[in-house]
Structure formats: structure tokens, C-alpha cells
Write a structure and sequence with these properties.
Two copies of one chain form a homodimer. Chain A is of the alpha/beta class and about 140 residues long. Chain A has five helices and five strands. A five-stranded parallel β-sheet of chain A has the order 2-1-4-3-5. In chain A, strand 3, helix 3 and strand 4 form a beta-alpha-beta unit.
Chain lengths: ~140, ~140
């Protein structure tokens, strides 16, 4: 059974170009997990949408910025826990809040620069695909 | 006279979606600078294409990863030097080399994660637009 991986994001991407680029990366990850994106309107709805049994990862500027290799190892661990979906939470313009960060199993940052959340979603899916490539030793990643 | 800002990149983007997203950000910067992208086939050609009088900024994992605000201040300084084009160099899969990094006025990193260079170009143009927004106090950046 393929693991489930969900990106929960506040706000609509409203950009078919970026949406398609993002979906392309997800497709190429299918050997490792079934990836989905779900958009919600508010942070309150995002919180309600996180399954109780999920491994929760928050994207937040206060989180740890790490290498793609380290991220790949973390992902490997998260995917190994049976029957626990892996959920990435991305806030809207106002970000996430302390309560959600406290609930998270991991808080990650994509780096010190502020990134438009639509780009954060694209970068995250690229990092997920890169992580799969690292774990499988495929030539995509030559970091 | 508008300042000239050039992104010199090794390799073709080959992705009309990302190209368009990137061009959109550049268009919105026109009040501050005229942005152009030039793709070259090899690192040798990239080196030859850097104008002798340019302010050269290299994108490299060994560079400094800084906040968008700091980047905006740097950009402001670079754009203030009259008659000096600002040139950002982005390597292909093999990156840049020591000689070019030594020639650079600044070496910057987008963060500790390895990013596909096609995404690095998109993220860079978004950061340039964000920098312009920061310098102009526009609401785009609420970092």
C-alpha cells in the first residue's frame, strides 16, 4: 500500500502554471507515496483538516533550514511509520501559529529568504521529488 | 535611465511555464531596473559574457544565505552605482567555479537545500521583485 502524503495549504494557488509544475513533481514520486494537495480558506480550517494520526510537518520561517540530504532522511523516517499519513502544512500570508507549531513533529524552513507561498509549494514538491531521488540513488540529485 | 540587470544562466530553462512566471516578476520590476535573462551553453561562455564593468553576483551553495530584507539593501547599493550593470550568474548542474566566485562582488545562496537551477531562476526573480517591493514599501512583502 502506498503511503499518503498531503500538502495542506491556506489560500488558492490561482496559478495554473505553477500548479502544473508542482503536480509534475508529485507524479514522479508515485513509487514512494501518493501525494495530494488540499487548499483551505483559513488557518482554522487547516487545523481541522489535519488528521489526528498524521505525522505533521509545518513550513515556517522559524523552523530548521537543512540540506536536501537531511530532509530526505527525515522523509524516509516519516514514510516508514505504517498507517500514518505525512502532512505538510503551509500557511497563507499570515503564516501558521504557535499552537500548530507545537502540534508539529517537525518545523522546517526553506531558508532565510521570505518566499511567496505559491513558490514555497513548488519548492516543497521539488524537494520531495529530490528526496525520493536521493533515497533511490537516482541521478537527479547530484548535490 | 533605467539600470540594467542581467541574469546569466548556464543551460536552457526548457520550461515555458516557469519562464513565463519568471518573466512576470521581471516585468513588475521595471520601475527600478530593466531585467533580462541570457542563457549560455557552458560555464566558459558565461564567463566571457560577463561585462568587464559589471557588478557580479554569483549564486552558489557556498555563498551567504540571508533574509529578503538584507538582499533588498544589497540590491539597492548595486543599483546605485551609475553605469554598472548588475549581473547574476547561475551555473548549470555543475555549478560555478572558484575563478568566477573570486571575481564576484557577492556570492549568495538561496538556502541550504539544493534547488533545481530552473527553480533557482524563478526564486531569484521573485526575490528581485520582493526586494523592489521592500525598497518601495509596497504591501507585497509583509515578511
Amino acid at each position: 500500500v502506498a503511503r499518503e502524503l498531503l500538502i495542506l495549504a491556506v489560500g488558492r494557488l490561482k496559478d495554473p502554471l505553477l500548479e502544473r509544475a508542482s503536480a509534475d513533481y508529485f507524479k514522479r514520486c508515485r513509487g514512494r507515496f501518493a501525494g495530494k494537495v488540499r487548499e483551505v480558506k483559513t488557518l482554522a480550517r487547516l487545523k481541522a483538516a489535519v488528521p489526528g494520526d498524521a505525522t505533521l510537518v509545518c513550513l515556517d520561517p522559524r523552523g530548521r533550514a537543512e540540506s536536501s540530504e537531511r530532509f530526505a532522511r527525515r522523509l524516509e523516517t516519516w514514510l516508514q511509520i505504517p498507517s500514518r499519513p505525512v502532512v505538510f502544512a503551509i500557511g497563507g500570508a499570515d503564516g501558521l501559529d504557535q499552537e500548530l507549531r507545537d502540534r508539529a513533529h517537525h518545523v522546517m524552513s526553506l531558508g532565510p529568504m521570505t518566499l511567496a507561498h505559491r513558490l514555497a509549494r513548488l519548492v516543497l514538491t521539488e524537494q520531495l521529488y529530490r528526496a525520493v531521488s536521493i533515497l533511490e540513488g537516482s541521478p537527479y540529485h547530484r548535490g
